[in-house]
């Protein structure tokens, strides 16, 4: 009788799908510290949610600050090649590799971080479905309005930028800084602290949310926002992506959890979280050190930025795309999702 019971139990175990009982730990890699808003307000909550919805079959091991090696520009290839399972990064760190999404990094495009993040997701699906075709895209987003942070000079007009060495994250923003008279210096955000402390740069453009993560409040004296009545003078695009083979190997129930926590809704949630983080980051700087560049001044900047957009349109058209259609489409999706 005992043998019969044991045999029946063994048969039951064989009959159960091993995939349904599978537990998966995802290696999540990114370039900011563990205490950054990106991890505490977006990546960690996402990991907690997929764990809860999968009854702890899906778990994350988060590796901040490039703990698994490499540099921020290598994150995309790390997830594509399966070195890690999930990454969060800026496509713009690999200049020119993802040209279609650069339209969102052109001057004065972003109106609402939440709405523009949703627009970016819809844009990729509609206009650039192959842009990130070798990974499983989970979300796209942008950060809040860019802010100038400088060591010795307040930025009030375009003339104040002349000759200043200013860090920016992407080639479109660097081109815009050059058009404004600054000397652009391209570098990923983790390098900003050292560059400021050593005088390699005179300032940087970054959103408020990342200021505490890289100690910019301790290394700069002045901060200049742009009039909130205007679109942001710049923003950056980000992707949250998973290795394709890792996703494909998941059993259906776990794929369903990932799918339920991906897409346009997640993209908008991340954009909203970054705006909330902006308010926290702004509180770290000394009172009286922030000024607002007025709309009247920024209208001159819009004119200076137009050739940057024209050049992007021409470049995309030369690559065989309809550059004007892409630009118009991005703008329409931003208005649709931002309500203005």
Tally the beta strands.
11
Shape descriptor reads globular
Please report the number of helical segments: 12
Judged by helices, strands and strand pairing, the structural class is alpha/beta
Q: Radius of gyration, rounded?
A: 22 Å
Please, what is the average pLDDT? 94
Residue share in helix: 40-55%
Residue ranges: pLDDT <50 for 5 or more in a row? 1-20
Largest β-sheet summary: 6 strands, mixed
Percent of residues in β-strands: 15-25%
**What strand order characterises the main sheet?**
7-6-8-5-9-11
Query: Secondary-structure element order, as H and E?
Result: HEHEHEHEEEHEHEHEEHHHEHH
Measured between the Cα atoms of the first and last residue, the distance is: 75 Å
Structural features, described:
A six-stranded mixed β-sheet has the order 7-6-8-5-9-11. It has a five-stranded mixed β-sheet with strand order 2-1-3-10-4. The radius of gyration is 22 Å and the shape is globular. It has helices at residues 2-15, 37-53, 75-80, 113-127, 171-179, 192-197, 216-219, 244-248, 252-260, 264-282, 295-318, 323-338, and strands at residues 24-29, 58-63, 86-89, 136-142, 147-150, 165-168, 183-186, 203-206, 222-226, 237-242, 290-293. It is α/β, with parallel strands linked by helices and 340 residues long. Helix 2 packs antiparallel against helix 10, helix 4 (113-127) packs antiparallel against helix 10 and helix 4 (113-127) packs across helix 12 (323-338). The model is unreliable at 1-20 (pLDDT under 50).
């Amino acid at each position: 009788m005992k043998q019969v019971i044991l045999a029946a139990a063994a048969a039951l175990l064989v009959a159960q799908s091993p995939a349904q009982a599978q537990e998966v730990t995802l290696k999540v890699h990114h370039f900011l510290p563990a205490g950054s808003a990106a991890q505490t307000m977006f990546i960690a909550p996402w990991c907690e949610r997929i764990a809860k919805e999968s009854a702890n079959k899906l778990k994350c091991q988060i590796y901040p600050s490039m703990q698994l090696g490499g540099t921020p520009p290598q994150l995309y290839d790390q997830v594509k090649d399966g070195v890690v399972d999930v990454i969060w990064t800026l496509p713009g760190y690999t200049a020119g590799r993802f040209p279609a999404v650069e339209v969102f990094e052109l001057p004065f495009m972003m109106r609402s971080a939440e709405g523009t993040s949703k627009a970016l997701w819809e844009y990729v699906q509609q206009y650039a479905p192959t842009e990130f075709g070798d990974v499983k895209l989970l979300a796209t987003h942008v950060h809040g309005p860019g802010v100038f942070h400088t060591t010795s000079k307040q930025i009030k007009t375009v003339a104040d930028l002349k000759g200043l060495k200013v860090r920016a994250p992407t080639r479109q923003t660097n081109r815009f800084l050059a058009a404004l008279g600054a000397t652009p210096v391209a570098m990923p955000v983790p390098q900003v602290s050292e560059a400021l402390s050593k005088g390699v740069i005179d300032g940087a453009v970054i959103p408020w949310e990342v200021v505490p993560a890289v100690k910019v409040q301790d290394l700069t004296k002045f901060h200049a926002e742009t009039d909130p009545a205007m679109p942001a003078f710049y923003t950056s695009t980000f992707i949250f992506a998973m290795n394709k083979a890792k996703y494909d190997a998941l059993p259906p129930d776990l794929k369903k959890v990932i799918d339920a926590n991906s897409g346009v809704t997640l993209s908008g949630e991340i954009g909203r979280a970054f705006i909330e983080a902006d308010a926290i980051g702004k509180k770290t700087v000394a009172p009286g050190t922030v000024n607002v560049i007025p709309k009247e001044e920024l209208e001159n900047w819009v004119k200076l930025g137009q050739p940057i957009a024209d050049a992007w349109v021409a470049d995309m058209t030369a690559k065989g795309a309809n550059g004007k259609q892409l630009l118009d489409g991005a703008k329409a999706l931003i208005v649709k999702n931002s309500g203005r």
